[in-house]
Fold Outer membrane protein beta-barrel domain-containing protein.
Amino acid sequence: MKINNLLLLAILFSLFTSTHAQNSNPEIGIKAGANYSKFTPDFSLDGRVYAEYQRKPGFYLGGFFSKSLSEKLYFQPELHFALHRTNFVANGVEIRTNDPNAGSTVLDVETRITESIIALPLILRYYFTDSFFVDAGPRVGFIIDRNEKVENDPFEEPGDPRTAPNYDFDNFDLSLSLGSGYKLSEDIIINARYFFGILERDNSIKSSVFTLGLEYKL
């Protein structure tokens, strides 16, 4: 990792842990669940989509602190490790050979993209009842690894995906989160969220992630 990336991660972790230090009686817990992610936007021309990102399942796990700001309002910073997956599909790629008498072949080219992310959601949670709540807040993400594999490649043998060329990808992500949940018991909460990117990465893409998981208060 580059030094400035390590410094950024250290700052985020310091912010996360300082919340614990300032809270004399925090609720501390762990959480885990599944995510369903892609990038936006798709690429279209004259109403025809010629390249798109398709959602794929992943997972997240981590921990949280929860501080009461009032009877119904809570501040909950979290720290996650998340695996985001998506497929990039270029539709109708025309393949031609050097033989002028040979026809062309039209195929779809598919690339699997996997990102490993350290994420810091800073969440405000409001309880409408003793059990039902909504929450929202920013989510800062640091991409620690990115892997691309060409799964459907007309130039390779079937079933032998190859690694796409490496490039210097943007490793900082900023999203907004909207969600809701329900307290199943005093210690267990089910929570669903949608994260949408507000920071454009690699000059074109933004994150779009659905999550569903459980929280367990220690």
About this structure: Residues 81 and 118 are 5 Å apart (CA to CA). Helices lie at 3-21.
